[in-house]
Amino acid sequence: MSTIPRVPSAVPGEPATFGNVFAHRPDLAAAFFRLYGTLWSEGIVPQPIKETARMRNARVTDCGYCKRVRFAGAREAGLDEAAVEQIVDGYESSDLSDDQKLVLRFTDAFLDPPHTVDAELAAAMSARFSAAEITELGLALAMFLGMAKVLISLGTEPEEMEITVVPTPALARS
Amino acid sequence: MTWLDEQASGATPLLRTVGLRPELAPLLDEFLAATWAATADPLTLELCRLRIAQIHGDRGQLALRQEPALAAGLTEEHVAALDDYLTSAVFTAHQRHCLAYAEQYVIDVHGITDADAAAVKQEMSDDQYVAFTVALGLFDGLGRMRLALGVDERGNGSVPVSPAH
Question: Which residue of B has its CA nearest to A57?
Answer without folding.
Answer: B141
